[in-house]
Specification:
The protein is of the alpha+beta class and 244 residues long. It has one domain (3-242). 24% of the residues lie in helices and 37% in strands. It has helices at 15-25, 33-36, 71-80, 113-118, 158-175, 211-219; strands spanning 3-7, 27-30, 44-51, 54-62, 65-69, 83-95, 98-109, 127-133, 136-144, 153-155, 182-184, 231-242. The model is unreliable at 193-244 (pLDDT under 50).
Length: 244
């Protein structure tokens, strides 16, 4: 499993507003095709917002869905994989950075993100891609003091972050410092193979939930941390306005 760091821009969101929106709809974030090719279902994404003190890490989500495949890419997925289409009443989703209408979804089992992109390899445009999952708040939040705001997603050494947090916690305890928010130095970006990358190839677990009820729960804002599987929810939507 990889861990990615992603910044929520202050020009579009105040932190509380983002959290409220993500709790209501789940997290969905735009991602470049060349970055998505390196991602897997089950990867962790740390969410941060930059302040004068550094990058405040306030939450995380597990990649469970991809959104925004073009009609041609969706057709290719239906052609190559066993799929289950779940239709629903149109559901408007209003976000600070734009809004769209959810009209249905496709669920696929035992397929990973690289598998989906590989069957669309010859397509020039496969859509306005997004990844999504259910927000999990981090409490207490912590600050990555040496990391500046960057667009997109950067792979990060999660084990290194956790070790630095434990060291900072022990330092504060030894000096009787009561500040609950830990501030740690270091870049933590992955520039070469790390032990996290050297794990054995990950197997996609068998999908054994009722498809209809799972997808209805998702579209109504259900808790996706209850899903003990890796699946694809390809949302068919018409974008009304917002950023490209």
């Amino acid at each position: 499993m990889k861990t990615w760091l992603h910044f929520v821009g202050k020009s579009f969101y105040k932190l509380d507003a983002f959290v409220q929106e993500a709790c209501r709809y789940g997290v969905s974030r735009r991602v470049a095709r060349n970055v998505l090719e390196k991602m897997h279902f089950g990867d962790r994404v740390l969410l941060a917002q930059h302040t004068g003190k550094g990058a405040i890490v306030f939450g995380e989500f597990t990649i469970r869905q991809i959104f925004g495949l073009s009609e041609a890419a969706s057709a290719r997925v239906h052609e190559r994989f066993e799929t289950k289409v779940v239709d629903s009443e149109p559901m408007p989703v209003e976000r600070e950075c734009g809004s769209y209408m959810v009209t249905g979804a496709t669920i696929i089992k035992n397929v990973d993100i690289p598998d989906i992109l590989s069957v669309c390899q010859d397509l020039k445009d496969i859509g306005k891609l997004m990844i999504g999952g259910q927000l999990r708040l981090i409490n207490p939040r912590y600050i990555l003091a040496s990391i500046d705001h960057r667009m997109g997603f950067r792979e990060i050494n999660y084990q290194g972050v956790q070790e630095a947090l434990q060291n900072e916690k022990k330092r504060k305890e030894s000096k009787h410092v009561k500040d609950p928010i830990h501030k740690i130095d270091g870049q933590f970006y992955v520039f070469k193979d790390t032990p996290e990358e050297q794990e054995a190839p990950r197997r996609v677990p068998q999908y054994d939930h009722d498809i209809s009820s799972v997808q209805i729960d998702f579209m109504l804002g259900g808790k996706q941390e209850d899903l003990q599987n890796y699946l694809v929810s390809i949302i068919n939507y018409t974008q009304k306005h917002g950023r490209n």
